[in-house]
Design brief:
220 residues, six-stranded mixed β-sheet, 5 helices, alpha+beta, 28% strand, CNF1/YfiH-like putative cysteine hydrolases
Length: 220
């Protein structure tokens, strides 16, 4: 049986983050339909009401419809699962640096609000993600970010920095008013026995196609 990684903060909601073994929709909610979008590192959010609403371009999904499993795939980018239990609204976001910088987190929270969620009641979990010590970037990357974002960049070798993507995503969640955040602090790059990592595979000259999947659903 595949390992399912869960967040205690989302304990009242059907959800799971996978290892490299993957997960099926039934691992989260038996008999439910899996819905995904074509991820393109955008800030775009798709509101799902039926199983066939998926397949379009976007990098986050939200719904208030029971019986649907929202799924996103990642291999270093941050998978973020969100729920307002009281409003029965869920969301799943693919937040790489480009999407997070472009507003995918804020847009996901806003789309959940449009379905009746309240930001202060939303709780979010950040799943397996490349960690700061594993994420070296250069100065041309650093200058894309605002002056106030320097705390997410640790000084590395000359002309380089270590970028803390999970902390940056958590910052964008807090800025959106999300009530509580659980960073599972699992480094995809640093744990090859459990996780795919696009960057690690690139560095090793290996196949880069592997992905984890993160799932969240509303039971009926």
């Amino acid at each position: 049986m595949a390992q399912i990684i869960r967040s205690s903060l989302l304990a009242d909601c059907r959800h799971g983050f996978s290892t490299h073994e993957g997960l099926d929709a039934a691992d989260v909610l038996a008999g439910a339909a899996l819905v995904r979008v074509r991820q393109v590192h955008s800030p775009d959010v798709v509101t799902i009401t039926r199983p066939d609403d998926g397949g379009v371009e976007g990098d986050a999904l939200v719904t208030d419809t029971p019986g649907l499993v929202l799924g996103i795939v990642t291999a270093d980018c941050a998978p973020v699962l969100l729920v307002d239990v009281s409003a029965r609204v869920i969301g799943a976001a693919h937040a790489g640096w480009r999407g997070a910088h472009g507003g995918v987190i804020e847009n996901t929270v806003a789309a959940m609000e449009s379905l009746g969620a309240q930001p202060g009641r939303i709780v979010a979990a950040i799943g397996p993600t490349i960690a700061g010590p594993s994420y070296e970037v250069d100065d041309s990357f650093r200058v894309r970010f605002a002056a106030g974002d320097e705390r997410f960049f640790a000084t590395g070798k000359p002309g380089h920095f270590q970028f803390d993507l999970p902390a940056y995503v958590a910052h964008r969640l807090r800025r959106s008013g999300v009530g509580a955040i659980d960073d599972l602090a699992l480094d995809t790059y640093g744990d090859p026995s459990r996780f795919h990592s696009f960057r690690r595979s690139t560095h090793r000259g290996e196949d880069t196609a592997g992905r984890q999947i993160s799932l969240i659903a509303l039971a009926g």
